[in-house]
Amino acid sequence: MITDVVEDRLLITSDIHLGSFSCHAGGPFTRFFEFACTNGFNICINGDGIDVLHTTLGHITREVSRLLSNLKHILRTQTQIYYVIGNHDIVLEHFLSDWGSVRLLPFLNVTSGNLRIRVEHGHLYDPFFMKHPDLQSALTRFMGIFLHMKPHWYSWHNTFRKIRYRKPEAVQSERSKDGSLIIPGQNPAFIQAADELARRGFDYVVMGHTHAPGMFDLTGGKKYVNTGSWFRRPHYVKIENGTLELKPWNG
After folding, report:
1. Which of 66, 68, 191, 249 is the most exposed place for a label (fewest CB within 10 A)?
2. Are 83 and 104 in contact (CB under 8 A)?
3. What pLDDT is stored for residue 247 in this prediction?
4. Contacts of range 144-147, beta carbons closer than 8 Å, 24 or more positions apart
5. Distance of alpha carbon 63 from its chain centroid, rounded?
6. Are 82 and 42 in contact (CB under 8 A)?
7. Domain coordinates of the chain in residue numbers?
8. Burial of 210 (0-12, 13-18, 19+ CB in 10 A)
């Protein structure tokens, strides 16, 4: 399995949650694919591209079939797709391998120009997920049933996060009394994990999972980047010839 790649032109996004009852990203995501292919970018889906927890077999089958039908007219044969496994699509771990132009991976290390970039979904740094995986799975499935009845209630996620971690995510990183890195509006566990990864020689650490987009300072001028989710305001990372930008997707 090859997890180290060199890329001059790569787009990274995450948390499309295709098939979820409360996320309807099929059309916009098709246009994102078209944008990437038209402009000669390879693509990295950084986890939770499909959602096997907040769905039913019939629903996700229809959604995925519709997307694949649209993509077959867009996707260029030379386009490389990297698919990093998340928690809502963790079943795909059984298929970690190269499938033609699609590469399923646990993480991805990207070199572009002088930049080294680590790409992980981020769920392995979620304290609740790691301590109580069975309970997490049960609660997630329960929420899937609940959201099937009231999809608009998904907004509780961002509200809860902002209350718990107080300040909005636009505020830059700070240090706690013990010296550990914190970013108001973000769960400290993800920031500390990103900081540790950056210390291993990465200039940028790109994650998803939290559904909170932003770019923040880490130790030594390194950066933590989160691409948010496709529930409301999707973002993507644009890597081009050794430069990296976080951009909103408005397509």
Report:
1. 68
2. yes
3. 96
4. 144/20, 144/21, 144/53, 144/54, 144/55, 147/20, 147/21, 147/22, 147/54
5. 19
6. yes
7. 4-248
8. buried
Average pLDDT for 17-34: 81
Q: Which two tokens stand for residue 56?
A: 């039913």
What is the domain class of 4-248 according to CATH?
alpha beta
Six-digit token string for 241: 């010839």
> Would the pLDDT of 172 be above 60?
no
Instruction: Note if the pTM is more than 0.70.
Output: yes
- 36, 11 in Cβ contact below 8 A? yes
Q: For residues 64 and 87, what is the distance between their CA atoms, to the nearest angstrom?
A: 18
